[in-house]
Design goal:
The complex is a heterodimer of chains A (273) and B (280).
Chain A lengths: L5 H28 L19 H9 L2 H32 L3 H15 L2 H14 L6 H11 L1 H13 L4 H8 L4 H12 L1 H17 L2 H7 L7 H11 L4 H21 L1 H10 L4
Helix pairs in contact in A: 1-13, 2-13, 3-4, 3-6, 3-7, 3-10, 4-7, 7-10, 8-9, 10-14, 12-13
Chain B lengths: L1 H21 L17 H7 L2 H32 L6 H9 L6 H11 L5 H8 L16 H26 L3 H9 L4 H12 L1 H16 L3 H6 L11 H10 L4 H33 L1
Classes of the chains: A mainly alpha (273), B mainly alpha (280).
Amino acid sequence: MNRYTPRTLVLEVAMIAVAAVFAFPVYVLINLAVRAPSDTSSPIRPTTAPTLENFTQAWQEAGLGGALINSVLVTAASVLIVLAVSSLAAYPLARSTARWSRGTFLLIMLGLILPFQLASLPLYQTVRDLGLLGSVWSLILFYSGLQVPFTTFLYAGFLRALPRDFEDAASIDGCAPLQAFRYVVFPMLKPITVTALVLNAVGIWNDFFTPLLYLSGSDQQTMPVAVAGFVGQFVSDWNLIFAALLISIVPVLAVYLALQRSIINGFAGGLKG
Amino acid sequence: MVPALSLFAFVVLVPSARGVYYAFTDWDGLDPEFVFVGLRNFTEMASDPDALRAVWHTLLVAVAVTVLQNGFGLLLALGVNTAIKSRDVLRVLLFAPAVVTPIVTAYLWRNLLGPDGAVNSLLGAVGLASWRQDWLGDPDLALWMVVLVVVWQFAGYSMVIFLAGLQSIPREIYEAAAIDGSGPVRRFWSIVRPLLAPAITINLMLSIIGGIKLFDQVYALTGGGPGHATDTISTLIYKDAFTLGEFGYSIALAVVLTVIVAVVSAGQYTVLSRNERAAS
């Protein structure tokens, strides 16, 4: 398995060819984003006179700056809240064997099955009546609740496999339960916290359905709705649209490339739970 | 525990319960007064060709995505989990689409698959000009294009999970099998497959549930069209509520979606956990 044989070389070439097919859409994306609208040559031919004009125009007209700030705010706040409340909830649920504990856990796990489509319309009414339509704060509130079941599930699974000796020692030393959680248990949860952070952050950043419902038409937009609104407005001006798409992808890919090891392990990490 | 429970109750539990109730009313989303109509929304659905087709499309897409995404993801994982020199770069590259916003990649593909798009240009360039067509405009093809886009985006996700499973198999086991004289296919089927059971479970659950709830890609690629050729339950829920104002009917569709998700997850969980036990 470790030796590099002629067959390995054939495999290597085949895999690189597959990867090239995978990357083809990205090549076209960049190629057309730097092309002036007057250039109507084939989309696969390299652009001869690249320009950055599409980017400046897309940035200004799509309001991507504000959307970027909103997306960062919504993602960061929601992830922080959901990690804090879910880890705190998972701890007693994983440790206590009382009947209420098992019942509460099952109730929360019900949330893994309920699709958001079911809750979304009644929630739309509530949000409208509270006057919170079009506000990123309502979005933070939703994600904080929506992501509780999945995050609690991850933490509880991990906690069940974690020995209780350290907490017992801490409590014998006179540590209050909440203190023991903060200083003894939570640091040991780091691997699953990384997984939960990565999965929640990517999921919330990329979510489109929720902001489409609650932020549509408002001036507070997240990246996905801002991009969708822009596409709707500039229907067939694809060079401009591609510039906007590329702008929205760059922050995601930059974070991905910088933290690729943690991110890939985070996605694969649910496996060990 | 109290904060988590209150958030969960406010955002998920209470609205879902209210949703189930609204499914039996003629609520239009605005009027505070609405009438309990019993099963009318559901009987209407049973004779609504658009709704029935949306259910069929949803199941078809979920199954097709699950099979193709995992089949392809497994092949990629097996290819990357070898001695090739580009393995680390390939892993990062092939997984990259999975972190990018689905609505954004779907808009990109809408252009690629258009009549003057890059896919047709590419076909022309390699001498397959006769294959060129309006991929998203053909009602028989459009749904498969949705599947293609989802598989392109998430095959790397399946790959990463399979890869984690493959890497947890001790090298000695392969070597012992190779010494015993079993061929690669035999080794895969008898050794790798049973040990991959947990990865298979997670992958199948993720892709089938994701496929059933599919919304973003359809919204961006076709908007459910041409006609209703690519509408899924989720896109129909959105249209019925926000363009037609039929909230009650729309929520009845959401109830159907919930039942499908629940039945499929329960069924899949039972079958797969039996397999996992059998494998261990």
